[in-house]
Amino acid sequence: MRELGLQVRSDAVGNLFGRLEGDDPTAVMTGSHIDTVPNGGPLDGALGILGALSAVETLKTQLGRPRRTLEVLVCCEEEGAAYPANYWGARAITGTLDPAEAASVKDADGRPIGDAMRAVGLDPAAIPSARRQDVATFVELHIEQGRLLEDAGLEVGVVGAITGQYRAQVVVEGRPDHAGTTPMDLRSDAYLGAAEMALRVAEIAGQLGRPAVATVGRVRLEPGAVNVVPGRATFSLDARHPDLALFEELLTSLDVALHEIAARRDLAVAVTRHLYEEPTPMSAQVQDLLGETADALGLRWMPMTSGAGHDSEIMARAYPTAMIFVPSQGGRSHRPDEWTPIEQIVPGVRLLAHTLRRLAYDA
Ligand code: HGY
Ligand code: MN
Ligand code: MN
Questions:
Q1: Taking the model in full, what pTM does it have?
Q2: Is the CB of 189 under 6 A from ligand 1?
Q3: Average pLDDT over the chain, rounded to whole?
Q4: What span, in angstroms and rounded, lies between the C-alpha atoms of 142 and 49?
Q5: Is the Cβ atom of 144 under 6 angstroms away from ligand 1?
């Protein structure tokens, strides 16, 4: 960013900004998240940052100072991989992050995210200072993480809406017992309850039909010894649907199922919600601008709904926002072989650059 001659600063939660000052200080902002998932791929998030830097570099080199300020965003903590509170960076920017969460949001070992902030010189009390009320537009370039563009042989997607997303932690309490001396009919095995719940969760989403999804991605058993009947099972629940009514129906069905299974197995169950984001529409104006620009560039594109969550769903509640997708090879993502060849990345960066030109130079 410094090499490009951008003003570089970071905010109270560790987001990073590269700013190209224009006559009008309200910013046309573009970027994505710098974090990813365990065992993730090289493009989720990172592509949106590098694409933004490439687009801004080209505009600055060819057109000089913009009429409206351009800003590249490097957003932190989107995934919620270490802490159950994703969109941490975007929520700080839009002023929807409660500073009290620095103490209440804890990792799997019970360590508050506020401790991790302080460990890198950030002050949780300063979180409100991260709020930005000077952003005119936000555009995010991202991999599709699905295979619709590849199957349709198209170059880019213009995202019109982002799916509704629910995340919770489910704790199933049974009774730890000796694995050798406790008869099967006398056990209160928390893992068997959790296992039945996981199967039922998948069944419910499957019965609701595409694009409903529900995932148990992380399970922890306690005490976790090979010769002790698990007394406690803790698992994550991620459920999504782009239609609000069906999203609510999915969540209700899941909750009923978890409690029915616990009651029948004489187990206790506690569900703690960590995330609830309704399906989020993107700005019609920004979508139209992306579509018109894609047409002007002769790009083959289509409107899309995102099954993945993005910082844009948070930004869209505060600023006119839309997203550009480029294809993902085989739809693979959140895994090391996540990939998009450069010739399929370039059309997305071109669309971003020309859209930013229209927003920051032509406006
Ligand atoms: O989970 C998601 O959809 C995104 O990668 N945070
Ligand atoms: Mn991701
Ligand atoms: Mn992402």
A1: 0.93
A2: no
A3: 97
A4: 9
A5: no
